[in-house]
Specification:
By secondary structure, this protein is an alpha/beta fold. The protein is built from 16 helices and seven strands. α8 crosses α9 and α11 packs across α16.
């Protein structure tokens, strides 16, 4: 009887332990609804990687680059650029050997030699690894000290060398949580990947690094463990909970945008989030910016709601509805052809510029500046005048590479800085 009692007690303890280890998900608050993809590029850098980075920056997309040492050693500045532009730099070994045929000593060299290049570029100290050909036997796994990242979508771009085929193969295979394999050493692969990214962004997918994909899906990556994807199994965290958008708010006074955000909060132009947080690195939505601009203009929550009613997707009971109504009545926002405003859609730099230009046009201010950006041709036709006005007013400027990045997103700290500039 005592043995049975012990067995039952042990079983109960195991059940309780298992329950405690399961991620909390009962209230659904951990599912933000995002559809995530991680696109990865192997075998570079190469002569097409720069154009790829330009294309990713224009779209506000982050990727993961699994680099080979034989190529990476000749492109140190490109490695640094990958890191500086928010992408994940990862390890694809030095000589692209089949590691299953190598000794433990050779495997260790193949990995450590590339890790040294990644570290020198400012990348992770223990970068994720992709074994060439997806081959990693027991010997390999006994050596590696980082997660092994494989893939779930392979467009076979190395085989077809046709941009349209690469695009269609990527789109045919994707699913929420997929890891896509492409090679940035082929121009057709770069062109096809960017075309697929455009289509998938339009379908509502969000591109993230492999690191952020795992984190946002509640996966704790482990050394020598193989990962093919990260599906939504109940944990689907928002971008500002992990990665580049996360910030330790106990150190908020050290953030570069603290002074501007504090000014905006003190004057009531911006508010803390619903959870009482600053979230300086969180991307701003179209509705949030319209509300910030309305508060800057002195508009209050008693503003009539009729203007917001013209948009089929605006909740008139939402806290931002009066501000959206003012923005619509003032001609600052016009919405989309289908009658929607898409309030939760992330604001782009060119959209912001147009809204600001319309704001100033109400006072007769139409100052124009010169569009000397390296990517000026990428600015949408409908946004050119708006960007020009913002340049003329000194509200926007290019990045260190002289680019405007019209499709890039803006953070709360960046919006705060612009509002402070507007205040003079």
């Amino acid at each position: 009887m005592k043995n049975i009692t012990r067995i039952l007690s042990a079983a109960l303890a195991l059940c309780l332990l298992a329950a405690l280890c399961l991620p909390a998900r009962a209230d659904g608050t951990q599912d933000c609804g995002a559809k995530l993809l991680a696109i990865t590029f192997d075998d570079g850098p190469g002569k097409y990687t720069g154009a790829l980075l330009d294309g990713l920056a224009e779209r506000g997309v982050h990727a993961t680059f699994f680099v080979n040492g034989v190529n990476a050693s000749g492109w140190p500045e490109t490695l640094k650029r990958i890191v500086n532009e928010g992408h994940q730099l990862a390890n694809h070994t030095y000589n692209h050997k089949n590691l299953n045929t190598c000794s433990a000593q050779t495997v260790a060299y193949e990995i450590s030699a590339v890790q040294a290049l990644i570290t020198a570029a400012g990348g992770d100290e223990n970068a994720y690894i992709r074994a060439p050909y997806g081959n990693a036997n027991k010997t390999v796994k006994s050596v590696v000290t980082a997660p092994l990242i494989y893939w779930s979508v392979d467009p076979e771009d190395w085989k077809y060398r046709n941009a349209e085929t690469v695009r269609s193969n990527i789109e045919a295979g994707v699913f929420d949580g997929a890891i896509i394999l492409v090679h940035d050493i082929y121009k057709t692969s770069v062109d096809g990947a960017l075309a697929a990214i455009d289509d998938l962004l339009a379908e509502g997918y969000e591109f993230v690094t492999v690191r952020d994909l795992l984190l946002r899906r509640g996966v704790t990556p482990e050394a020598a463990t193989v990962y093919y994807s990260a599906k939504n199994n109940g944990i689907n965290l928002p971008a500002d909970a992990v990665g580049e958008q996360a910030f330790d708010e106990s150190r908020i006074e050290t953030h570069w945008g603290y002074a501007a955000m504090k000014t905006c909060l003190d004057y009531g132009w911006m508010t803390l989030t619903d959870t009482g947080e600053w979230k300086p690195n969180a991307f701003v939505t179209r509705a949030e910016f319209a509300a910030d601009l309305a508060r800057f203009a002195g508009i209050h929550t008693l503003y009539p709601l009729e203007g917001a009613a013209r948009f089929s997707d605006v909740d008139l009971t939402a806290a931002d509805a009066p501000y959206l109504a003012w923005a619509a009545d003032s001609g600052i926002v016009a919405g989309y052809d289908d009658g929607t405003f898409r309030p939760e859609k992330t604001l782009t730099r060119e959209q912001m510029a147009v809204m600001l230009a319309r704001y100033y046009a109400r006072s007769g201010v139409t100052t124009q500046g010169s569009l000397d950006f390296a990517d000026a041709a990428k600015i949408s036709g409908w946004a050119v005048d708006g960007v020009s006005v913002c340049v003329g007013l000194g509200l926007v400027q290019g990045d260190p590479r002289g680019r405007f990045l019209p499709q890039s997103r803006l953070t709360r700290a960046q919006i705060a800085s612009i509002l402070v500039r507007m205040a003079g």
